[in-house]
Amino acid sequence: MASDQQSDLIILLPSRGLGGAEHYAVTVATHCSLQGWSVSLVAPDPRTLNPIKARLDAAGVTLSQLPRAVRPNRGGRAQALSDGVELAISFAYLRWARPRAAMLVLPRQDITLGTQLAAAAAGIPLTVVFQLAGRVMVQPRLKQRLYAWARSRATWIAVSQQNARALAEGFGCSASEITVVYNGAHFDSRSKDQRSSPRPDGPVLLCVGRLAYQKGLDLLVQALPFVRREFPTVRCLWAGEGELESELRTMIESYGLKEQVTFLGKRTDIPRLLDECDLFVFPSREEGHPFALLEAMGSGAAVVASDAAGIPEIITSEVHGLLHRAGDACDLMDKILIALRDPASMQMMAKGAATRAGAFTEAKMLDETFSILQRGLQAEDVHAP
C-alpha cells in the first residue's frame, strides 16, 4: 500500500546529532517548502532535531523517522549484508512514500550505498550531498561500479572543489561528474566592534563546533600552554558538545588549563560570542565547507584556521586570516601568537574576511541547490507515464 500523500521531496538524513549537515538539511527543507513544495525530512531519531523543530513546523515540513536499515553502520564483515538489507528496505520505503524526488544529506562519504541503489531502481530522482568528504576513501572495485550505476541516475554534490576531487579519487570517477555547491551562511548585518589592542583582562579565543577528533581541539590544548607563557590571562571558550568532551576535560586538567578553558555546551547565541571574542580558532583536521567558519568571517571576527581540505578555498592566509598546517599543534601555536601580538593586522584581515564571506551566502547556496532539485523534478515529469 502506498502512502496516502505524495511528497514533492523527501530529505533523508542518516545521521544522529545536530551539526552542520543537519542544519543544512533543515535549511534546504524549509526553503523548498516555502517555494510551495510538500517536503518531508526523515531522520533516525527526530528528537535530535527538537531544538530547531520550530523552523520545520513554521514552514510546514513533515518530520518523521528513518527506517533502521538506512542508518549508518560500522562496516566490517557484515557490510555487504548490511548494504543488501538497506537496499531492500529503502526500496520498499521509497515505493511506499512515492516522493517525486529525494535528497540524501551525508555527514560522511562511505554510507547509504543501498539507499542510492534503491532510489535508482525505483526511478526516483536523487540528489546526494556530501557534507564531509575531505579525505580520500578508496572504495572497493565492486562498490565503485555499483555507485557508478546509481550516480548515473542521480546528482552528486560536493561542498568544495577539494572535496569533489577527493570523492572522485575514492569512487573512481571524474570530478566533472560531481557538482560543487558551496555551503553558505546567513550573516548578521551588524559589524563587529574591532579592537586594535588586546582587552585589559586578556585575550579571548572562541571555538565553535562538535567536540570530536575531526575538529582538532586536542591540538589547541597542546598549543595553549605556550600561548599562556606570553599571554598569561588568555581565555578560551568552547561552544559545542560531542563524544570527546570527557577526554578533552581530562586532557585540559592534565595540562593545567582548567582556568583558561570554559566549556559552554550547545549555544544559540553564537553571534554574541563572536562579537565578544578577540580571535576565532578553527583547528579542524578535516572539513567540507564549514558553516561555523563562514559565520565567524561574516561577523568580522579575526580568524586562525587550519588548511584542512576545502578551507583554503575560503581563506587566503595573511589576507583573510591565518592558516596553520592541519594536525600541527606547533604551527597552530605560532599562528595564534602571531595573531595576538598584532591585533591591528588581524583587524585588517578580518575586514577582508567579512568581504570574502559575502561570496558564500545562504541565499546563493539555496538558489543553486533548488535549481538542481527542480531539474530532477522536471526530468521525472518528462519520464512519467
Structural write-up:
The structure is a single chain. This protein folds into 2 domains: 9-184 and 362-383, Rossmann fold, CATH 3.40.50; 204-357, Glycogen Phosphorylase B (Rossmann fold, 3-Layer(aba) Sandwich), CATH 3.40.50.2000. It is built from 13 helices and 13 strands. It has helices at 20-34, 53-59, 79-97, 113-122, 141-151, 161-171, 217-230, 245-254, 270-276, 291-299, 329-341, 343-357, 362-383, and strands at 9-12, 39-43, 62-65, 101-106, 126-130, 154-158, 178-180, 204-208, 235-239, 261-265, 279-282, 303-306, 322-324. Strand 5 (126-130), helix 5 (141-151) and strand 6 form a beta-alpha-beta unit. It is elongated and about 65 Å long. The model has no long low-confidence stretch (mean pLDDT 90).
Could you name the key traits of this structure?
385 residues, Rossmann fold, seven-stranded parallel β-sheet, 2 domains, six-stranded parallel β-sheet, 42% helix, elongated, 13 helices, alpha/beta
